[in-house]
Amino acid sequence: MARRITGRSHGDPRTADTRAKVKDDYRPSRDEILRYIAENPDRAGKRDIAKAFALRGDDRIWLKDILRDLQDEGVLTKERKRLARVGALPHVAVLDIFGRDGDGILLAHPAESVGTGEPPVVSIRVSRSGNGPAPGIGDRVLAKTFPTDDPSGPAYTGRVMKIFEKRTDAVLGVFRVLQDGTFRIEQVERRQPELIVDKEFQNGARNGDLVEVEPARASRYGLPRAKVLNVLGSLTSEKAVSMIAIHAHDIPHIFPADVIAESEAVKPATLDHREDWRDLPLVTIDPADAKDHDDAVFATPDLDEKNPGGVIATVAIADVAAYVRYGTALDREALKRGNSVYFPDRVVPMLPERISNDLCSLREGQDRPALAVRMTFSADGHKIRHSFHRVMMKSAAKLAYPQAQAAIDGVPDDKTGPILDTVLKPLWDAYAILKRGRAGRQPLELDLPERKIMLKPDGTVDRVIVPERLDAHKLIEEFMIQANVAAAETLEAKKQALVYRVHDAPSLAKQESLREFLQTLGLSLARGAQMRPSQFNGILERVRGADNEALVNEVVLRSQSQAEYSPGNIGHFGLNLRRYAHFTSPIRRYADLIVHRGLIAALGLGPGGLTQEEAARLEDVAILISGTERRAMAAERDTVDRLIAAYLAERIDDRFDARISGVTKSGLFVQLPQYGADGFIPVSTLGGDYYIYDETARSLFGERSGKGYQLADHVEVRLVEVAPMAGAMRFEMLTDPKPLPGSTRSFHKAKGRARASQTRPGSRGRRR
């Protein structure tokens, strides 16, 4: 029995006549379920679907099985608590408008990829009343999307909610002096044309400088002209390299005049609405080169006889909400930036220096406003209670991680010696208790060392190091996690709107892919809808110290979902926490500022709380700041790639130890562990054999030999080509292919798949 779905966005998907005829045993078809999910993205949870089709009792169990089958088949994916078609656009998406159709209607693509195929096309609706935003070609917009029924037209229509600020007319380029004495601007992006600069517009630029230029209108003949606005520095300097990433990713890096003026006019906070905690010896423990300090800690034994062996841990966080109020120029600019961006030799801050490095930085010996949480833990690490306080504090000491650790290890200095017994040892005693709670919680424990680039005074790379992971780092991390949990719990208990930090469990498709891969190594991963981090930890523990330890860590990492911000809570899978919100870094993350405002409003802690207007916009804000976080990560990664490429440009033909960091049909990505840099080896250079890509085993192997290369293999490579401005390197493989783990079964399976694909109509097998 089939029935037509009306296509309405909400409510019962049946017509009135159909509802009257439905029998009690009616069950919708798979196509009807999929259509309903596509047309009702806001009402696509299991309960919503059951209610829409009037399913009860056993029919709900049947529906649950159908939905699980659709997820196992890769047709549906679970996003938070809602189901969605794999590759479908979210209901609210960031779009880039690229052109118009034959009728003049604007067309857009999603700014971020969805699925693995061609990006869907979205036709943009423009308000007929003229009251809504009026976008144009080249704009980036935030829009609500709706699937269409027209198979020959765009897959979606979009209603614009907001137009993102356009980039300035300035573009980036390399200033070049030609042999005839004329000046040219060499492009650093492919789409950018070459430009001519007249001498009067040189503005002090010299050959090889990275410059910002303002292009003039193109003439009918010859290259367009431009004038130099700013000289950013030599191409060999880090400042220039990071500036390329700043421009390429549209990162706002210059504060508008009204924002600077507003920050300079701010007056220091007073004791109004605050408790006086200036006698409490809170200390900051940060990297040695930190310029702002937004968290301070203190701990003491709990003297309550009902809590033997317990501790009281206190975390105080800079009260940014005291200075950055909703709707001000400071607030608008902070939201636009979303977060600070950290490059090896510079920071693009979320807030002006007057706020971030002065008024809000918890400087040693200076009065500073803070929002503090006092948490009581039992001896087994279980949190018994917590309370939030708006305070005035005075940091007793500014410490670096190695400095604090050295004191605990028996080598105190002039600053740590006087506070060793009264402050530092109680902190480490409290950390020992918090570690017990962490061990019981069993968060995901991946072994992925971080690298840090050390620069010379001229901004070029000196060396790349892996900083030692100290207990001092882990102490601060665990204190901050507990403070974040307390913030989420308080806001949830008060029914106060907030932005959670959420991390979904791996999708069923990724779980199955990981399971197939582990089988090639003789390892098993249990099936089940409710995966736990402990199951992954069990796998990681089994390979600890083995040859494939790095490989398994890498594949488990790639199976994980990406954390993001959301006003709806699905918990944090990686940390194994039911509720979690970022509270501890409001100087550098807008999400934390929202949480601070929520706590101030919910607990009546004075001015600067979350407003109703702001609370109503949290879904849009969460999308924006999740995007700015991804933008920052990409810019930071690109800058490191360019720096390392420039550093190695003089070492063409040198040999390097490398690890395979990616496997594709077209070749191998390799990483140089010493530098943390990636390069590529085209499959066409691997030798005379025809290499087959085995997605399950993450490998390429020869059709004739059955030998090949697998993700995380250690190999030797030769550097053959470097493009520093693009951060790209090409290598040649020097290590012979080897038999792969589980190669007999994987070889025949993948070879069969490859041959089948070559015989399908329209398939194109390539021999390398």
From TrEMBL:
SMART domains: RNB (SM00955), S1 (SM00316). It comes from the Bacteria. Its EC number is 3.1.13.1. It is an enzyme of class 3 (hydrolase). Residues 9-24 have a biased composition (Basic and acidic residues). Keywords: Cytoplasm, Exonuclease, Hydrolase, Nuclease, RNA-binding. It holds the Pfam family CSD2. It is found in: Cytoplasm. CDD domains: S1_RNase_R. Its main location: cytoplasm. Belongs to the RNR ribonuclease family. RNase R subfamily. PANTHER family: DIS3-LIKE EXONUCLEASE 2, RIBONUCLEASE. 3'-5' exoribonuclease that releases 5'-nucleoside monophosphates and is involved in maturation of structured RNAs. This is Ribonuclease R. It comes from Mesorhizobium huakuii. The gene is rnr.
